[in-house]
Amino acid sequence: MPDLAFRRKSAIENWDHLINNSQPVIYFGMASCGQAAGAAEVRKAVEEALDENFLSAHLINVGCIGPCYLEPIMDVAMPGWARVSYAHMTPAKAKKLVVDALKSGTPPLEDAVGVLEPVENRQTGGLPSFFDQPMLKPQVRIILRNCGLIDPEDLDHYLAHDGYQGLQNALNMRPEEVIEQVRLSGLRGRGGSGFPTARKWELCRAAPGEDKYLVCNADEGDPGAFMNRSLIEGDPHSLLEGLLIAGYAIGASHGVIYTRAEYPLAISRLRTALEQMRESGLLGSHILGSNFNFEIKIKEGAGAFVCGEETALFASIEGRRGMPRSRPPFPAISGLYGKPTVNNNVETISTLPHILRQGADWYHQYGTPNSTGTKTFSLVGKVRRTGLIEIPLGMTLRQIIFDIGGGTEKPFKAVQTGGPSGGCLSAEYLDLPVDYENLKKAGSIMGSGGLIVMDRDTCVVDLAHYFLEFIQKESCGKCVPCRIGTRHLVEILERITKGEGQQDDLDTLEHLAKTISQGSLCGLGQSAPNPVVTSLRSFRDEYEQHIQQGYCPAGVCRDLYQYEISQDACTGCRACVRVCPVDAIEGKLHEPHSIDSSKCIRCRACYETCRFDAIEGKPIQ
Amino acid sequence: MTLDKFPANGNPIQYTQGDLIPLLQSIQERAGYLSPENVSEVARKLHISENEVYGVASFYTQFRFNAPGRHSIKICLGTACHVRSGQKLMEAIERELHIKPGETTSDGLFDLQRVACLGCCALAPVMQIDDQIFGRVTATRLKHILESYA
């Protein structure tokens, strides 16, 4: 395969030229999250500053490096210097910083967060490595190793970082040997169910028929999870290389990426990457001179959570309502268009290039014996350091939330793993090592990797109601337990959050939950009651407070508390008076204020504004 | 609007059921919504009934059947946004614009939708106006943002 070797050599030369620069390079974290934090304005300001001062620099957009709480992030690499990272950029700060750096030839060190590799023979100004920060140090970055570091729209950057090496290795093996490597690595489905990837492949490979499909589920439907979006935006070729490897192993010639229409940037990055592949002989017929032919299509989903279920996903690709069907036949025998099909999650597929490049044994060293490797999580909610993380499986929830996430501002209450189908795990589960079996035993699931942290201001009843309302809306309506059962769960939970709960409601919830999980057709219904069951287990007293005392201690259910101002804590700063949209708060400067409950709409504005913890949610008298 | 596409050989493309969702998506992208005329035209092209087209379109949250405003506001009510008071943000917008999700302001400037997750969870609560995403939206910031579109 002379072509790719040649291309790789020049890619490495280009990369070396870029980082051994005689010209300054400025990198902008421009994933969707970075843009939401204002990265585009920062880049524009830098461009203006360069023009105004007749300075020049190489500007590169990169993906998300992970610690979203630092966004917008900008790196400056001056000649002779390591790449220095800056956080919380504003247009004004970035402008000044870039001009100072370029005029003096030295990056300002005061506001720097750390330096990125390589650092040999370069000045670092004594700055620590970016990856030595508390949030990043415990992580192991395999899937995310390129994210935030390379230009996702430049194939050369990917090739210079061993890109498509895994594919080359795979094409030098027989497909059965590729499957064997994946089996030895212990890789399990990262979409949440944890089914051994190699076993799924074997079934499909052995299935009769010439036409086989490989489907990549990139319909990241869990609200509160964004691992796949970030990965595709930051390193699209790693997914596409993985698709080729999987396609080769199972003997498929068509690959379909089913992705969310809400992720326009990820889709455009994939399209760009696909064109680059085609130009470089990595797509189409005789890939890299082998006998392997493969085409990849992108299908934009149209918004339906149930399409995360594979048979529903196939229906959606076929242009029908995304409703699951009963099994057997299993997709490995009869899937998309009735052909043998493998459906793998984005993260599963993106892991393949690394396994094929570095070997099954190498991968096996990470994680636990039954849950090998690493897993990405989106660590969000009431945690101090939010963002995208990658950890070896087996790490405890405490390490994830407190060491990586920096804990919560207000006292920790619980963490929801696995999205709406997962469970709410209270403080007693904090020392649980995270792997497929442990989470299942705890009544939750691994899911695709959303970790939503709750503190004392989160009401578990309200959250259970939120999840069930979501599931109920997304229920496709095909089977009765899910369609009608979830509706009743929602009605009961709604009643409780309004203070109209009845004494036997909790028993009814538990009874219904059992029926729904046992009787539903697909995973959506079977796991739908998890949030209720797990939160009832750990927080039954909070449910009872809602029902018996008509009081929501978290101050969320609006009919079940009233705000009062602690006369001792209030300093009379009038901050709450200014934000109240209905003029319900009165008080003179430097004198304790008071709230008129009859006017208060409990919009929470005062509670969030008060810096003295003087606003308290109290039971209604 | 016409759906006919003529490739180089001059023959119109034969649509199949698999093209239904992409077709609806491209119509909505151009027209902003699916009108009854669009639906019947798609049904004719694909040789399926209007009922089937509606059945598929109404199954998915992406499709809308009424005209949007000049700017589309999407409030994220994913879990992270919910935990970080996304619902309060929705209520604040409803108060500011006097519309509910699915509606358009009387001056046709804004329409309002709730979405399941925009994938910027670390910056919750999040809202999107057209293609621009705003993170960590507070009540005060919301006013400034809306004013900049007036």
UniProtKB/TrEMBL annotation, chain A:
<keyword id="KW-0479">Metal-binding</keyword>
<dbReference type="InterPro" id="IPR019575">
    <property type="entry name" value="Nuop51_4Fe4S-bd"/>
</dbReference>
<dbReference type="Pfam" id="PF10589">
    <property type="entry name" value="NADH_4Fe-4S"/>
</dbReference>
<feature type="domain" description="4Fe-4S ferredoxin-type">
    <location>
        <begin position="591"/>
        <end position="620"/>
    </location>
</feature>
<dbReference type="GO" id="GO:0010181">
    <property type="term" value="F:FMN binding"/>
</dbReference>
<dbReference type="InterPro" id="IPR017900">
    <property type="entry name" value="4Fe4S_Fe_S_CS"/>
</dbReference>
<dbReference type="InterPro" id="IPR037207">
    <property type="entry name" value="Nuop51_4Fe4S-bd_sf"/>
</dbReference>
<dbReference type="InterPro" id="IPR037225">
    <property type="entry name" value="Nuo51_FMN-bd_sf"/>
</dbReference>
<keyword id="KW-0411">Iron-sulfur</keyword>
<dbReference type="InterPro" id="IPR011538">
    <property type="entry name" value="Nuo51_FMN-bd"/>
</dbReference>
<dbReference type="GO" id="GO:0051539">
    <property type="term" value="F:4 iron, 4 sulfur cluster binding"/>
</dbReference>
<feature type="domain" description="4Fe-4S ferredoxin-type">
    <location>
        <begin position="561"/>
        <end position="590"/>
    </location>
</feature>
<keyword id="KW-0408">Iron</keyword>
<dbReference type="InterPro" id="IPR001949">
    <property type="entry name" value="NADH-UbQ_OxRdtase_51kDa_CS"/>
</dbReference>
<dbReference type="Pfam" id="PF13237">
    <property type="entry name" value="Fer4_10"/>
</dbReference>
<dbReference type="Pfam" id="PF01512">
    <property type="entry name" value="Complex1_51K"/>
</dbReference>
<dbReference type="GO" id="GO:0008137">
    <property type="term" value="F:NADH dehydrogenase (ubiquinone) activity"/>
</dbReference>
<dbReference type="GO" id="GO:0046872">
    <property type="term" value="F:metal ion binding"/>
</dbReference>
<protein>
    <submittedName>
        <fullName>NADH dehydrogenase</fullName>
    </submittedName>
</protein>
<keyword id="KW-0004">4Fe-4S</keyword>
<dbReference type="InterPro" id="IPR017896">
    <property type="entry name" value="4Fe4S_Fe-S-bd"/>
</dbReference>
<comment type="similarity">
    <text>Belongs to the complex I 51 kDa subunit family.</text>
</comment>
TrEMBL record, chain B:
<dbReference type="InterPro" id="IPR036249">
    <property type="entry name" value="Thioredoxin-like_sf"/>
</dbReference>
<keyword id="KW-0408">Iron</keyword>
<dbReference type="InterPro" id="IPR042128">
    <property type="entry name" value="NuoE_dom"/>
</dbReference>
<feature type="binding site">
    <location>
        <position position="117"/>
    </location>
    <ligand>
        <name>[2Fe-2S] cluster</name>
    </ligand>
</feature>
<dbReference type="Pfam" id="PF01257">
    <property type="entry name" value="2Fe-2S_thioredx"/>
</dbReference>
<keyword id="KW-0001">2Fe-2S</keyword>
<feature type="binding site">
    <location>
        <position position="121"/>
    </location>
    <ligand>
        <name>[2Fe-2S] cluster</name>
    </ligand>
</feature>
<dbReference type="InterPro" id="IPR041921">
    <property type="entry name" value="NuoE_N"/>
</dbReference>
<dbReference type="InterPro" id="IPR002023">
    <property type="entry name" value="NuoE-like"/>
</dbReference>
<keyword id="KW-0479">Metal-binding</keyword>
<protein>
    <submittedName>
        <fullName>NADH dehydrogenase</fullName>
    </submittedName>
</protein>
<dbReference type="GO" id="GO:0046872">
    <property type="term" value="F:metal ion binding"/>
</dbReference>
<comment type="similarity">
    <text>Belongs to the complex I 24 kDa subunit family.</text>
</comment>
<keyword id="KW-0411">Iron-sulfur</keyword>
<feature type="binding site">
    <location>
        <position position="81"/>
    </location>
    <ligand>
        <name>[2Fe-2S] cluster</name>
    </ligand>
</feature>
<dbReference type="GO" id="GO:0051537">
    <property type="term" value="F:2 iron, 2 sulfur cluster binding"/>
</dbReference>
<dbReference type="InterPro" id="IPR028431">
    <property type="entry name" value="NADP_DH_HndA-like"/>
</dbReference>
<dbReference type="GO" id="GO:0016491">
    <property type="term" value="F:oxidoreductase activity"/>
</dbReference>
<feature type="binding site">
    <location>
        <position position="76"/>
    </location>
    <ligand>
        <name>[2Fe-2S] cluster</name>
    </ligand>
</feature>
